[in-house]
Amino acid sequence: MLYGGYQHNIDKKGRIFIPSKLRDELGNSFMICRGIYGKRCLCVYSMDEWEVLVDKIGNLPSAKSSVVKRFLYDGAFNVEFDSQGRILIPSTLREYAELLEDAHIIGMDTNLEIWNTALWEAENRQYTPESVAEIVEGLDF
């Protein structure tokens, strides 16, 4: 399970450090792509979770599946960690997510999200303890 929030810098070559706790969950080779949830962030999936996502997209009606595949696959890259635990974020993805100098990495259970810090702060400001409580109200705790 991937969880936690981490603040890291992006170096001039477009590399970002991924904490070891998250690296262990992702494995040696994994996928990075544009997020498909209507937010300008990047998503990182282990190869197993990538296959789950691909299968779910394949179950959509073909017209919808094609749209999602074009958006997702056009900006999807297989990446690996370097010897220092960093990944190179391809320039097209850095541009898409407006990643320039710093980023916020969030563990989202089955995947990571990588956000421009300012965009993440703006996104996160809209949620209050009360609004989150309304969302989880129907869960049995």
Q: TL;DR?
A:
The chain is α+β, with helices and mostly antiparallel strands and 141 residues long. The chain contains six helices and eight strands. The strands form two sheets. Strands 1-7-8-4-3-5 form a six-stranded antiparallel beta sheet, sandwiched between helices. A two-stranded antiparallel ribbon has the order 2-6.
Keywords:
141 residues, alpha+beta, six-stranded antiparallel sheet, two-stranded antiparallel ribbon, 6 helices
Average pLDDT works out at 95
Low-confidence stretches: none
Cα(first) to Cα(last) distance is 20 Å
Number of DSSP strand runs:
8
- Read across the widest sheet, the strand sequence of neighbours is 1-7-8-4-3-5
Tally of alpha and pi helices? 6
Descriptive notes:
It is built from six helices and eight strands. The protein is α+β, with helices and mostly antiparallel strands and 141 residues long. A six-stranded antiparallel β-sheet has the order 1-7-8-4-3-5, with helices on both faces. A hairpin with a 7-residue loop joins strand 3 and strand 4 (42-46).
